[in-house]
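== Sequence, structure tokens ==
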Amino acid sequence: MLLQLAIENYTLRQSIFRNELKELERWSKEMGLADMGFARQKTTYCHFAVASTASNSSLSDVRLAVVKSAILVTVADDFFDREGSMDELEALVNAVNRWEPKGLTGHGKTIFNALKDFVDDISGKFFDKNGYDIKAYLQDVWCQTFASWLKEAEWSRNGHAPSTVEYLQVAATSIASHTILLPAAFLLNPPPEIDILKKRQPLTNSLMLLTRLLNEIRSYQKEQEEGKPNLLLLYMKENPNLGVEESIAIIEKTLDEKKKEFLELALSSDEMPEACKRLHLHCLKSFQMFFNSTNAFDSPTELLAHINKAIFDPLRVEDVQGSFMPLNSLQNTLGLKKDKSLASHGKSHYSSSKILPL
């Protein structure tokens, strides 16, 4: 009976995840983000990272919000890194500051319209449940992030090498982990009080630094080729007696120490709700999935097998003889009728043998 229920639960969750992916692909295409040409298409990667850490079925709206934020961050970051002229980038940042797209064209207008749709959706859902507006706060979070991307674009195009301290002051924001996390936090039950988040909690600051450090270690070669500042490269410039491996070891040691501090904050009793603390933990786990040993986020293939197993492939469980039995065979063995399956209430039109384009 327990095995039967476990199979049903897993299959139901797979169905929910496939339906979420379908909605995310629809939204991305409708907003024009899926057809930018220059931007990385990482919808499936981002959803897998979120679904594998925050898998509870009741968190569907939260997962959708996190992934939409991640899609926006990825596309906008690529626009600032490789596509937009400085005039276009400054125009987009000014439009976000005004919260008005007047004068924007092309990709900048597409990004702004998608951002506005996202913020309106989150703030509208929150208002319906809680009776007050959080739109100004969400706008401010995104304004800060866009400003950090502009600063990094200025450094890259002017050939400026900031100090490690100056760099981290900007880069902890530009990694945008808080930008991905905080809007979705308002859809938790219970949501955090807006005054708590406005104070920029130590846990959030710690997450921003950790995610930046994880990214820096695994992306320095790519950013060196692109002429972008990177903490590892800047650290080596300030310490010319150290090589790459020694510098990585020093940053990794710092990373380990900061992780302990982060966990202490996450386990402490303070004013941040437990559900919001868990969301911070989920976010860190997702970044570790992408950057723990390699730069899996930029790899087109590294996570495909894991994604297929988790979301698309039928469940296979080990039978008593040590081989693997497909789910439908096991259902027959257990006498589980397909028409009674819990998963039938959330069927997806996706084929289990296919995976969404990345």
Remarks:
- Residues 2 and 56 are 18 Å apart (CA to CA).
- The chain has a mean pLDDT of 89.
